[in-house]
């Protein structure tokens, strides 16, 4: 076994990637990511202790957040980047240790977990050590399962917290929990019950983090508005922007204005089309293409350069790799990386803009529009119509089908469910899962589209807010009594965060697919089934029947 990774839904055989990632991650990269996570836990161990003495550091917390974010599936494939971060992590850990010891006195070395003490200046030793500190270092299957579930939930929290931070929103509780949670995974005295409690707490923090990000996004760019998003092309050269980072979107639009270059979104950047601040730009044309995993085919056809602001990056083919640019925590060997902001300035996208000017306009793949922009503000502004629709029977209920998309053909299940749901049901969605069905013409109910797209995966917060407010408006005490059923698609660790967020709200009976996570052991699954009635998806026919019975 040259690596072990089972953090995403595409883990080989639904057990784990052991030779090379299905995502394209090389074993050395997977192992370096393990080492980086392990050291981040070591850093958090000290930063958590430092808190008791008021010596905790925000930059240290942020550094850990970026480490976590960079190890999310399809984010960074660049060994050099990880070597650099590991070196830096050893330095950051030493500094926070010193700071803690200057307040609390010297620590007895024998009490420390190895993640808090191991060190080396030799990069070759990084590779050696990286093979020992991964997931399988925890022998007990249930403890391993809970440690990983917690770590993956925290990775998603870190990604969302990072986006919010870039836009000037942060919450101390979120930073504190990330440290506490990571340090807990090093503590051999914690058993199943304690770790389960931490997982539940992660769900609550996930909601708080998504709320913080929602505040950051809407504060900076306005509340998304119902929008017919153009999916066709124009005849200027274009730049395609993908990922989730709205600050990058803003700066790219600003820098391309008046340059004769159009801007299009791909994948999870699609919801940017519904923000009032972005709609102001005439050269912001619309969305090009579909889900992240179709990028090899679609990037080729786009002709112009592509900016990846976050995951999901598919290792690019040689035929178009010279036009893929990365930024933030995204990385791939050989691609041009746009540096971070310096001294409060903007990122510099001029290299991409110049590149675009020498390219052909995008090849047309489709035309027309698709509806978007149904986040909490837009949906709740129609709460009266919705409640009236429910009361009159025009709306039988809602099916939350948010989450992620992936490569496997069995994900067509979600498309089939969308097609089979009767005309008096409405699909609420967020995240890239929607690309399986967002171009179906499912019509409207009393003017309300039957697919309401709240935005990116983090905008699942909108779905929680909508459910809660509908419960309040209709005087329902238990959120489970609402006519809402949950049929969730998952792929990477942000989806784990979203799932934990839904569970933290006491939502029961969620269907999850296309498979249950490989990292959930039988016993842990037993607890999730007992407590939340979590279940795997079944056949389209059976599930549609069961969903309708639940509404
Ligand atoms: Fe998708 Fe990828 Fe948003 Fe994920 S593009 S899969 S859950 O990174 O983050 O929904
Ligand atoms: Fe495999 Fe997913 Fe890990 Fe990639 S991220 S190595 S596909 S489990």
Distance between the termini: 47 Å
Beta-strand level of the residues, as a percent range? 5-15%
Bound molecules: iron/sulfur/oxygen hybrid cluster, iron/sulfur cluster
Report Rg.
23 Å
Level-1 CATH class name of the largest domain: Alpha Beta
Low-confidence stretches: none
Query: Number of DSSP helices?
Result: 18
Shape: globular
CATH topology of the largest domain: Rossmann fold
Strand count, sense and closure of the main sheet? Answer: 6 strands, parallel
Q: Provide the CATH architecture of the largest domain.
A: 3-Layer(aba) Sandwich
Secondary structure category: alpha/beta
Helices and strands in order:
Blueprint: H1 27-51, H2 58-70, H3 79-104, H4 123-130, H5 141-166, H6 172-184, H7 192-221, E1 227-230, E2 238-242, H8 246-256, E3 262-265, H9 276-279, E4 284-287, H10 295-302, E5 306-308, E6 324-327, E7 336-338, H11 350-357, E8 369-372, H12 376-380, H13 383-392, E9 397-400, H14 412-420, E10 425-429, E11 444-445, E12 448-449, E13 451-453, H15 460-473, E14 484-489, H16 493-504, E15 511-513, H17 522-532, E16 535-536, H18 540-550
Parallel strand pairs: 2-3, 2-5, 3-4, 5-6, 6-7, 9-10, 9-14, 10-13, 14-15, 15-16
Antiparallel strand pairs: 1-8, 11-12
Helix pairs in contact: 1-2, 1-3, 1-4, 1-6, 2-3, 2-5, 2-6, 5-6, 5-7, 5-16, 6-7, 7-16, 14-18
Iron/sulfur cluster binds near residues 6 and 17.
């Amino acid at each position: 076994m040259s690596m072990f990774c089972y953090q995403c839904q595409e883990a080989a055989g639904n057990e784990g990637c052991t030779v090379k990632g299905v995502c394209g991650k090389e074993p050395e990269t997977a192992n370096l990511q393990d080492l980086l996570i392990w050291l981040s836990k070591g850093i958090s161990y000290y930063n958590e202790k430092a808190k008791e003495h008021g010596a905790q550091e925000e930059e240290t917390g942020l550094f850990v957040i970026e480490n976590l974010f960079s190890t999310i599936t399809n984010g960074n494939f660049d060994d050099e980047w990880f070597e650099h971060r590991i070196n830096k992590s050893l330095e950051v850990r030493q500094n926070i240790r010193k700071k803690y010891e200057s307040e609390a006195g010297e620590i007895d070395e024998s009490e420390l977990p190895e993640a808090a003490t191991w060190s080396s200046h030799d990069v070759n030793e990084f590779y050696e050590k990286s093979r020992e500190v991964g997931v399988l270092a925890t022998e007990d299957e249930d403890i391993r399962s809970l440690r990983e579930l917690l770590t993956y939930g925290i990775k998603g929290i870190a990604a969302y917290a990072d986006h919010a931070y870039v836009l000037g929103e942060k919450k101390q509780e979120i930073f504190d929990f990330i440290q506490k949670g990571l340090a807990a995974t090093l503590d051999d005295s914690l058993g199943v019950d304690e770790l389960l409690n931490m997982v539940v707490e992660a769900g609550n923090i996930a909601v708080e983090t998504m709320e913080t990000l929602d505040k950051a996004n809407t504060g900076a760019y306005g509340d998304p508005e119902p929008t017919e998003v153009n999916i066709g092309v124009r005849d200027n050269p274009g730049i395609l922007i993908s990922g989730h980072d709205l600050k990058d979107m803003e700066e790219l639009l600003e820098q391309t204005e008046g340059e004769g270059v159009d801007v299009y979104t791909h994948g999870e950047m699609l919801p940017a089309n519904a923000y009032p601040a972005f709609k102001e730009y005439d050269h912001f044309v619309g969305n090009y293409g579909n889900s992240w995993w179709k990028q090899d085919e679609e990037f080729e056809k786009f002709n112009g350069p592509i900016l990846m602001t976050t995951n999901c990056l598919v290792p690019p083919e040689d035929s178009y790799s010279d036009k893929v640019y990365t930024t933030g925590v995204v990385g791939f060997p050989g691609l041009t990386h746009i540096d971070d902001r310096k001294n409060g300035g903007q990122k510099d996208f001029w290299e991409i803009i110049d590149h675009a000017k020498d390219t052909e306009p995008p090849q047309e793949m489709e035309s027309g529009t698709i509806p978007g922009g149904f986040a909490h503000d837009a949906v709740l502004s129609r709460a009266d119509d919705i409640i009236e629709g429910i009361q009159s029977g025009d709306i039988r209920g809602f099916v939350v089908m948010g989450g992620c998309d992936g490569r496997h053909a069995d994900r067509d299940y979600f498309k089939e469910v969308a097609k089979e749901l009767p005309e008096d049901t409405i699909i609420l969605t967020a995240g890239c899962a929607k690309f399986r069905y967002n171009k179906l013409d499912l019509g409207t109910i009393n003017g309300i589209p039957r697919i309401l797209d709240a935005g990116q995966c983090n905008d699942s917060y909108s779905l929680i807010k909508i459910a809660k407010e509908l419960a309040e408006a209709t005087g329902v005490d238990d959120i489970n009594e609402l006519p809402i059923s949950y049929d969730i698609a998952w792929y990477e660790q942000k989806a784990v965060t979203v799932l934990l967020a839904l569970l933290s709200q006491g939502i029961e009976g969620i269907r999850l697919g296309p498979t249950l996570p490989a990292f959930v052991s039988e016993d842990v699954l037993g607890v999730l089934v007992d407590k939340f009635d979590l279940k795997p998806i079944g056949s389209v026919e059976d599930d549609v029947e069961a969903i309708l019975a639940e509404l």
